[in-house]
Write a structure and sequence with these properties.
mainly alpha, 1 helix, 0% strand, elongated
Length: 71
């Protein structure tokens, strides 16, 4: 391989690394936004399934999990 080819491979790898770093930062920001959105919804009684309650801390399955086929 010539020095020029090595330089091209190196430049391409640097661009890919920069792109991955940028995408990682964007994903981290998106996760933060989704987490903030979920936390705000957990405090809103009008969002079905999001209101934090006692069952959230329970180690037992929810009542709907205790359904026997044929009942």
């Amino acid at each position: 391989m010539s020095e020029h080819e090595h330089e091209q491979i190196h430049e391409r790898a640097e661009r890919e690394a920069e792109d991955l770093e940028r995408r990682n930062e964007e994903l981290g920001e998106h996760v933060d936004q989704v987490r903030q959105d979920w936390e705000s919804k957990k405090g809103d009684e009008q969002v079905p399934g999001a209101v934090a309650g006692e069952e959230e801390d329970s180690d037992e399955p929810p009542p709907e999990a205790d359904i026997t086929p044929g009942d």
